[in-house]
Amino acid sequence: MLEKTDFRTAQREAFEADIIEGLSRTPQKTLPCRWLYDDRGSELFEQITALPEYYPTRTETAILREQAGEIAAFCGPRTVLVEYGAGAGVKTEILLGALENPALYLPIDIAGDFLATSAARIERRFPYIEIRPVVADFTDEFDLPDDLPKLTPRVAFFPGSTIGNLDRDEAVAFLRRVRAQVGEAGKAVIGVDLKKDLARLLPAYDDAAGVTAAFNLNLLTRINAELGGDFAEDGFAHEARWSEATSAVEMHMVSLRAQKAEVAGRSFSFAEGETIHTESSRKYSTSSFAELAEEAGWSVAHVWSDPDGLFAVFGLAGTSD
Ligand code: AVI
C-alpha cells in the first residue's frame, strides 16, 4: 500500500503530466475535470449543490427520499452496498436508512481523509452497519476486498450523475467493471441527469452568484500553487456551453486576451477567445442511458424520476434477470 507521502507525490506527478499534456493539445486545450476537486474546489462544489439554479442534487435527493421504499425493495435484504465515491452524504443516509438489514457498506474514494471522515459520519448514524472504506480511484481498475460476504447480493450505488462526467466509452467501461465487481446477482442504483431545455440546463452551470465560475477558475489557482504556474487569474473567464454532438454541458475557461503562461517550466500561448475545456457533463434520455447500460451488460429494471422529468435514478440488474 502507498504511504501518504508517496501517494501525494504520485498525485502531484499525475497532476503535472495531465496539465502539460492537456495544455499541449491542439486545436482544443483540455484539462481533466478530476483536478477541479482540491480542498477549495470541493468546498465550491458543495456550495454549487445548494444553488437555486443547480437542480440535480435537490431533485435526486427528493427522488431517493420519496422512492426509498421501492428502491430498497429493488436492492433486497442483507445487501453489501458498494458506493463509488464517498461524497453523497445525505443520499447515502437515505438509502442505508431504507435498506432492510444491510450486511456491509463499502464506500470507495481516492481521497483517504475525506473517506475516513464520511465513513465516521455514517458509523455514528448507523452504528449497527459494518463499514469497510476502500481507498481507490474508481475510474480505474481496482479490486474489491476478497473477503466480502459471499452469499449476500451486492448493490452498486453511484449517485450525483457523476457518470455524466465520463465520456461514453469511459461510462461503458465503468459500468462493465461495476457489473464484474457486483457479480451475476448484483444490482446497481445510478443517478443520471436528464437532457432538458437549455434555458434550465445552462444556468445550472453558470449561476448568478458566480460560484460555478469560481469552481472552474480555481483550477488556475491550483496550477499556480501546486505546479509553480504563473497564470493571470483575471485573464480567463468561465463559460458554460451546450455540445449537441456529445449531449453535454461543457465548462470552458476563455482567454480574455492574447497571453502566455508558464507551468512547470513550460510556456503555453493563448489567443484571445481561445478556451481550455475543463469538464463535460453529459445529459441522457432514459432510452440513451438504457442503451449505454445494456452495452455494459446491464438491463434497466426500474427508472425512478421526479414529476418534471429533470433527473432519473436507474435500477439496473443483470441481463439474465
Ligand atoms: C460532479 N458532477 C456530477 C457535477 C456535474 O453536474 O457535472 C460537477 C459540476 N460541474 C459544474 N457544476 C457541477
From TrEMBL:
Its EC number is 2.1.1.44. It is an enzyme of class 2 (transferase). Keywords: Methyltransferase, Transferase. It holds the Pfam family Methyltransf_33. One of its GO terms (biological process) is methylation. Residues 15-314 form the Histidine-specific methyltransferase SAM-dependent domain. It comes from the Bacteria. One of its GO terms (molecular function) is L-histidine N(alpha)-methyltransferase activity. InterPro entries: EgtD, EgtD_Methyltrsf_superfamily, MeTrfase_dom, MeTrfase_EgtD-like, SAM-dependent_MTases_sf. This is L-histidine N(Alpha)-methyltransferase. It comes from Hansschlegelia quercus.
